[in-house]
Amino acid sequence: MLLLAVTAMEKLKTLPPAVWVKIGIAVAAFIISILVLRRVMKMNKIIAAIIGFVVVTVVFFSWVYNRNEPKFLTPLVERIAPFFPSAGSCASRQGTTPKP
């Protein structure tokens, strides 16, 4: 059993520094999200709901504009995307002259 633990430690030592940076960022993001969540729970619920709505709306419209949504939301975004501008359609119109 000790032999298995040593090989696991050796594998951890061989990980590149970029992996450790990503792990550190993930742990810091988790701790910060817990602290923010605790602060929001003490807030007025209406204000917290408005802030949450704005954040979700901005993220969703960013997904629709850039088409970089999560894979499971692609069917929903495909139905909604024709009603809103997208990065591809705006870039294609930049080279044309405006219609009077």
How are the SSEs ordered, and which strands pair?
Elements: H1 2-13, H2 17-41, H3 45-66, H4 74-80, H5 87-93
Instruction: List unreliable stretches of 5+ residues.
Output: none
Strand content: under 5%
SS summary, helix count: 5
Shape: flat
What is the CA–CA distance across the termini?
Answer: 78 Å
Order of helices and strands: HHHHH
Please give the number of β-strands: 0
Rounded to an integer, what's the Rg over CA atoms? 22 Å
Helical content band: over 70%
The description of the largest β-sheet is: none
Structural class assignment? mainly alpha
Mean pLDDT: 83
What does this structure look like?
This protein is mainly alpha-helical. The chain has a domain at 19-83. 73% of the residues lie in helices and 0% in strands. The protein contains five helices and no strands. The protein has helices at residues 2-13, 17-41, 45-66, 74-80, 87-93. It is flat. The termini are far apart.
